[in-house]
Write a structure and sequence with these properties.
12 strands; signal; Endonuclease/exonuclease/phosphatase domain-containing protein; Endo/exonu/phosph_ase_sf
């Protein structure tokens, strides 16, 4: 094996160590695996198609090793956080299969295995050929702790509304009923379009769909890349606080006072505000022009309490987003 490739592979395998060693961003409210509440969640835009793997003109064996190293880094974070639900966006089908297999019982001696559902938003994305040159589907996935934890027959994929005159690509909401710490919950994952007019259509639709899908008022966990700021009016349909809010959700990182900006909706005495640590930043991507929170973990307010959240430091080589971790306890 070439020395240069060995160095590259070592760097990729160290991604998992970077994720687990830091255990969060250097904020006053830093949440670690040792201090977090028992219910654990991850939302991560993994940039499966647009972020090229550093394989160059390597051999097939080298390409396979690089992909395995990427998956190992992600699985290391799932294990470190002892995640109950993991929501991934911008995921290639070939990428999902590798993660699925790595989290299956056969590979998980002494560790929790995960059940999973997949949803395609695009039948083919050119960048996905780095994961599978034949099947280039692109979409979202939910991973739920425990083999068989996804309730059979409850998976739904709903295409979200679009503005006919706006340039966009198909966006979906993926949902399923899952077992969550001995209870049944509705888990949903989405990736909202970034064009303003389309965002304004899709965010309220997602809120409507999640509420309509809940069985007998069951707990709901909604995650994703919403391509919008917390305080923006588009997010009113999700949050249950702030001017104009009509939603049913709290967000895991809304009580980080380091991120509060004093306003009518966020007075100096506030204990929670529509805010949070950045999940898209210039440190992660050359295409990002400003640092902002656009990735979320929403929990239905009546079911969860003492929410906690952190955006991990940017991990070059894994994605162009920060990984968002959340935790909570049951309210009742």
């Amino acid at each position: 094996m070439r020395a240069s490739f060995r160095a590259l592979l070592a760097a990729l395998f160290s991604i998992g160590l970077l994720l687990t060693a830091g255990t969060g961003s250097a904020q006053a409210d830093e949440v670690t695996p040792e201090t977090a509440k028992p219910l654990r969640f991850i939302s991560y835009n993994v940039c499966g198609a647009k972020c090229p793997l550093p394989v160059g003109t390597g051999t097939e064996a080298e390409k396979t090793a690089v992909k395995a190293a990427w998956v190992s880094g992600l699985v290391a974070e799932v294990d470190t956080w002892d995640s109950d639900l993991v929501m991934l966006q911008e995921l290639c089908y070939g990428q999902w299969k590798l993660i699925r297999d790595a989290l299956a019982p056969a590979q998980r001696a002494g560790k929790a295995s995960y059940d999973t559902v997949w949803g395609s938003s695009l039948a083919s994305a050119s960048g996905c050929d780095q994961w599978d040159p034949v099947d280039r589907r692109f979409g979202l996935a939910i991973f739920s702790k425990g083999q068989g934890s996804v309730v059979p027959g409850t998976r739904t994929v709903t295409f979200l509304p679009e503005v006919p005159t706006a340039p966009t690509e198909d966006r979906i909401l993926l949902c399923a009923q899952t077992a969550l710490d001995g209870r049944t919950a509705r888990a949903c994952n989405t990736h909202i379009d970034f064009h303003d007019a389309t965002t304004a259509l899709q965010v309220p639709k997602v809120a409507e769909l999640v509420e309509a899908a809940r069985q007998d008022g069951e707990p709901a966990v909604l995650a994703g890349d919403f391509n919008q700021l917390p305080e923006h009016a588009d997010m009113n349909a999700l949050y249950n606080h702030g001017t104009g809010s009509t939603g049913r959700f709290q967000e895991v990182d809304e009580n980080d006072k380091e991120e509060f900006t004093v306003s009518v909706d966020c007075p100096e005495t506030a204990v929670r505000c529509r805010s949070g640590e950045e999940t898209a930043s210039t440190a992660c991507s050359a295409h990002t022009t400003e640092n902002s929170k656009i990735d979320y973990l929403f929990l239905s307010y009546e079911w969860f309490k003492t929410v906690q959240g952190d955006a991990l430091p940017c991990t070059s080589g894994l994605s162009d987003h920060h990984l968002l971790r959340g935790a909570a306890a049951w309210e009742k």
